[in-house]
Amino acid sequence: MTREFDLWLAANDNYLAAALDWLRARLVQLAEDEEAAAAAAAKQSRNGALVSADAGDSPVRVAGLRARPMLGRLFHTESGAPPAAPAAPEPAAPPPQRARIAVPAAMAEAEASETPPPLLVLAKRMGLSAFERQTLLLCLAMELDPHIAGLYARAQQDAARPFPTFALALRLFDEPAWEVMSPERPLRYWRLLEINQPGAQALIGSALKADERIVNYLKGLNYLDDRLTPLLAAVELAAAPLPPSQQSVADSVVRHVEQAGANARVPVFQLLGADSQSKLLIAHAGAERLGLSLYRLPAEQLPGQTGDLETFVRLWRRESALLPIALYVEAADLERGGGAHMMPLRRLIERDAGLLFLDVREPWQELGRDAVSFDAARPAPAEQLAAWAEALGEAGAGQPERLSAHFNFNVPTIRQIAATAAADSAAGGGSLEQSLWRDSLRRARPALEQLAQIVQAKAGWQDLELPETEKSLLRQIVDQVKGRSAVYDAWGFRERMNRGLGISVLFAGESGTGKTMAAEVIANELGLLIFRIDLSAVVSKYIGETEKNLRKLFDAAEDGGAILFFDEADALFGKRSEVKDSHDRYANIEVNYLLQRIEAFRGLAILASNMKAALDGAFLRRLRFIVNFPFPGPAERAAIWQNIFPARLPTGALDYPRLARLNLTGGSIHNIALNAAFLAAEKGTPVTMPLLLDAARTEFRKLEKPVSEADLRWLEATATGGGAP
């Protein structure tokens, strides 16, 4: 603690001590007045002149000699007399009232100081009247001085009431107001007091207790209410400058708040986009500039029951008045306008008046409160390049360009990866370049397990048997992915383009002609992860679900630098049909969404299909490359046969030209080789021509192709002891 805080705390203690002394004195005075009135009433009773007070006309059942003066103060009448029966005799004049004990000079000085005590701060922020502030002090005294309970009982002339009540407050303080008990007045609305009202007991005579959070605040201890802490998480981020593109958004938020003024209701700030981390960084920077602590709330955590939600909203608003805080609500996964959590969130937005950030993908309308929307994206590629260069220094020469071209990270993530990779490299975990790439892949790996399957890319260029023209196209794809940073950023193409920054490729050809292998070769060459899209998990019969799944795919792959491989792409990218019913309309909507999304995708997307003619023509126009995978000729088939067997596999004398005469694709050749290997393992022999031709017969039958026994005569000749024909 600082010395200034210690001095303020001591001053507050002095203020509370003076306030308690003043309160005790007034309680003693009230008790003595009540006792004197009771004695006078008893004397008159003995003389036969008892005056009966009508308890129904008084807010608290008291002796008649004391009821009228209190009613006069409470209802602001001149005589203070309640309606009385016409025949009732006039009571004897009550004892003269003593002057009320004035506020001590110490309290008056504290109230006039530049740093007033928390009780006065609370009264101002919550809109408490002087009488309500004194009523709260009456309850606070019970927590600070347990011995004061005896005075409560004495002042109320009831040993069973050693606690504060509204009735006591109305008798004790100047300018009493009946409306202090209203649920709409601050004491009850802001939950400053707790009321214990068992059974049919009257509210005015029920026990009052100051809220624990408020007691600690008035004593000088300020913290977030523990009823909110299970739902909220403090946002604690390392202090670091934001890149200019994000800092400009934070500055705009600050300007809007400052222009609104201290007492105005600021708009809710909608932070748009898919990257929640960027939005959180921007919100934290804006709140920090305004001197506020930021708390994060997942929208799903909001209470669903109306009563619980109302309590949450009031407590949060109360905390906003007591603490410099702001709220960040994570609502990016909620459906606009629907969902079980939408109504609680809208209720919070409508009622809250403080600084509130809303994490959403697209702007929401009709929030019940003014809203300002900002696009909040990850740093621009040039900013990421600068961040990599700063984090790596001279040791990472050449790496910033490569890393910023393939990965899309925030500045804190870039710094963490750079530090981790440097430590791993120093500990013998490989070169800095290897560590950087490995750590970047690990950090950027998209969460696509439910919608896609990662492909272990093992194939290399030597495994791919294609005509040179097609191989040249594949190398161009690799070169364009590697050179994106230079062309788009260094040469300025990104400034002229807002779409088509990614690379979309179609691999067209029959099944088994090497399309999947070519995708593996590209992934291997680039060192990137490749995911095969699981169409059964992506395509949904429910309206809108397919688009949602595709959005997750593209967003995750784009941020992680992953390659998306759409096998059997014609199932997703088929031609739009004439609209005859609602099913056709929604199917066309899915295709239209894909058209827009694949054009906006900034990564590498590979579409594979053996039905090129079935694809929508609009897709073909948007593709950067179309690579045709022809049916392999005899020369390609011979090369495939020669490379199909692992080095450790025992083989006999194989006739590769004869095998190449079998009219099969590379995929079928792989199946034959594998099946022959299992036959050889069963027989305990090397892989021989008879086994291969036997496996080939099985493959032809599986494909329902005609079997030419002349091509497979080797097996018969060998069985009779002859040679190959």
TrEMBL record:
The keyword Iron does not apply. Keywords: ATP-binding, Nucleotide-binding. SUPFAM superfamilies: P-loop containing nucleoside triphosphate hydrolases. Residues 76-99 are annotated as: Disordered. One of its GO terms (molecular function) is ATP binding. Coiled coil: none annotated. Residues 501-633 form the AAA+ ATPase domain. Residues 83-97 have a biased composition (Pro residues). The keyword Isomerase does not apply. Pfam families: AAA (PF00004), WHD (PF22977). Belongs to the AAA ATPase family. This is ATP-binding protein. It comes from Janthinobacterium fluminis. The lineage of its organism: Bacteria, Pseudomonadati, Pseudomonadota, Betaproteobacteria, Burkholderiales.
